[in-house]
Amino acid sequence: MRPIVEVEALCVQALAKRGKDRIPLIQDVSFQIHPGEMLALVGESGSGKSVTAGAVLGLLPNALHIGSGSLRFQGEDVLAWTEKKRRGLLGSQIGCVFQDYQGSFTPFRKIGKQLTEMIRTHHSLSKATAKDLALEWLDQVALPAERVYDSYPFQLSGGQRQRTALAAAMMLRPALVVADEPTTALDVLTGERVLDLLAELQMQVGCAVLLISHDLRHVMKRADTVAVMKDGRIVECEATEMIRRRASHPYTQTLLHARPLLTDLDAGLDWENEEVVSSERHEGVDGVESLADREPAV
Amino acid sequence: MLRLITARLQQLVFVLFLLSAFTFLLMKLAPGDPVLTLLKIDQIAATQAEEAALRSQLGFDRPIHEQYASWIWGVLHLDLGDSYLAKRPVLEMLLERVPGTFQLALGGIAVMMAIAVPLGLLAAKYPGRLPDHLSRLLALIGSSVPSFWMGLLLIYAFSYKLNWLPTMGTGSFRHMILPSLTLGLAIAAVYARLLRAGLLDSLSQEYIRAARARGIAEWRVLTLHALRAALLPVVTVFGMSVGHLLAGTVVVEILFSWPGLGSLAVEAIFARDYPVIQGYVLLIGVFVVAVNLLVDLSYGWLDPRIRYEKGEAA
Amino acid sequence: MNTWHSIRQSPMTALGIALLTLLVFLTLFGPWIVPNDPLTVQMSERLQPPSWQYPFGTDHLGRCLFSRLVEGAQITLGLAAVVIVTVAVIGIPVGLLSGYVGGRLDTILMRIVDGAGALPEFVVAISVAGFLGPNLTNLLLSIVAIKWMGYARVVRSIVLSEREKEYVLAARVAGGSAWTVMRRHLIPQILSPVFVLAALDIGKIIMLIAMFSFLGLGAQPPTPEWGAMLNDGRPYFQTVPELMIYPGMAILLVVISCNLIADGLRDRLDVRSR
User: Fold this and answer.
1) Least buried of A70, A165, A222, C33, by fewest C-beta within 10 Å?
2) Nearest CB to A121: which of B217, B308, B314?
3) Could you tell me if the ipTM is greater than 0.85?
4) Where are its TM segments located (chain C) (predicted)?
């Protein structure tokens, strides 16, 4: 079976503001994702996992650029795509869910408008059909469809927004969904449910999923394959079962034994983990992303 | 939202009170005796008795606070008095001129938007590149060029040298072009810069990345997703500088012999026709506050979060 | 070396400073370099083309256009300077007092500033010109009457935020008199924003004076104020466009240099807005 995504020896560099210095952000990253497979890319903040996701999506900020390596999507060379082609595939063949639920939808426009806009961007459907499709998917993610359709994003809770974002990502039955820390900004329980939903929808649509997370044990329950990143390199990439049984790399071991997890406990709350989640949210921007934030001001 | 509007209405009352007191005071401070002026205009050799009669007819023999009270009573009943010169109700004269100024202001705003929006979008799309530098240069020149001078230059070039457009008069679209350009060109670049700053800010937001990741076409991302937030500062500055726009209409009306409020006011100043000046100032005050009320309302339209201040659970 | 560095850092600001220096030079030494008296009417010499005698030609009354323009620099810059200084002299103390003393005084002052500040300065200037007569003094008075409020407001807000900071509290606790505290701690803080505000305002004030003079509501003939000169030259501009081109260009250059300097100052002094 041909993989959906093939990443080979990928290097991404940051262009320093002055001079010709190039700071390597990820080096020699290789992995494959097959249809229906969920690959979890795990690493701490700044390990380069979000940059990898950005490269796969073709949405790297201007200050970053791909130095070498190859990126294939369904056998096609992603790096050779025109902007127009990339836009055409984003949303229809490649779905995305981002970390920050605040930013998953434009705040001034109603959810329904944004969903139908997306549908009609990729398929020539009538407004009514597009609306039906959007409502159907809002229903799929267990939301009160009509009400959410008519709401502004700020009228929904964080969990509701991430569910809506999931619906948007899956709605057009893409071949790949990239979920960049979709649960980080949510509280633990809500996050768990969103991940469950992600796995459930993946089954239904049959797409491949690239799940980015900073928490190894959090994703082990659902991912088929786990790739562990550290300092811009993949240190270990194995089937989840193998990781669980005998992780070879010492760093993976550290991550595995780092902390107890909610799912390990029968109790409903785990204060330690929650604390980790919230502190992660504060500094939760990779060094690279803060560079990207600054970029437009230059 | 409702609070904002009530606050604006209170401000309207306050500003009108302030303006009315201010102009009334100035009128009393004005050199020369309006009664004598009036009689002089009529070109009759007035007797002492006639002068006294007119004085009491106008109420000028009563104490000042009584005069103010009766004048403000009239204003509240839409009676702004009669023009010394034309002997007609001031309100009627002003209302005749409102459409002219309104048309001019709209023309200027249209020119401004036609230039500012594309220029701002381009400058934000390509920061640090040619459109950006161009808009910066134009903004510098635009905020430094005297509008009356630019109007003259436009007349010289397009009416006199090229003979394309009429210099004065109203009625057709062709008559609108030069006055609207004079009014709109100078302010356009400044708004383009504001729009650029707002757009750069909103383009760096997460939701723009999300929209792009959904494959939405770039022009839709710019206009439908990013522009909305970028308009807030633009609208705010527009509300604050509406006085500027009105000053501009005065100049343009004089330059192009355009029958509007501004030219009426300038004529009235030269003729010392105090009631007309007073009426003009009051009307401008109402206009300024009304525009700011519209600006407040537009916030609610631009950003629904303001509209739903106490909306459903966030 | 240092100068060269700043020029390279912000060439536009340097350009503004160079232009303004030239204009200030003209203002100071104008009377010695102009070839003719700016006010002498010579009907025999009217509307002359440029020559050695009259570098920019003559106007409709045979006056030397170049001499009038140079004289106009003095008027324009002089008036703007007078207005800005007066405005600062009124606005800064009021703002200091309002912010430092607070209470009733502050409430009343700010009520006035907020209410009257809502009026566009042009409306005030029009009413003053309308009722008290259209002349330069009244125009300047009305500009001052509106502009001081902006300064009072800015100064007050800085004082309010600085007043509660520890170093000011310490100075007060240590027994410094109100005057000492203001002079040592508050005034240095307000200088930068006031400079930026003033630099921005100078361009606006020059423009407003020129505009009113152009409408005939400011400087009156034969004063060689640039706006008034434009108005004078208006009937002849089709045959002798120089009469309107040069004064307008002069206004443009002054205002541009003020705006360039204001931008430079803002970038350098106001770190917060960046």
Assistant:
1) C33
2) B217
3) no
4) 12-34, 75-100, 190-215, 244-265
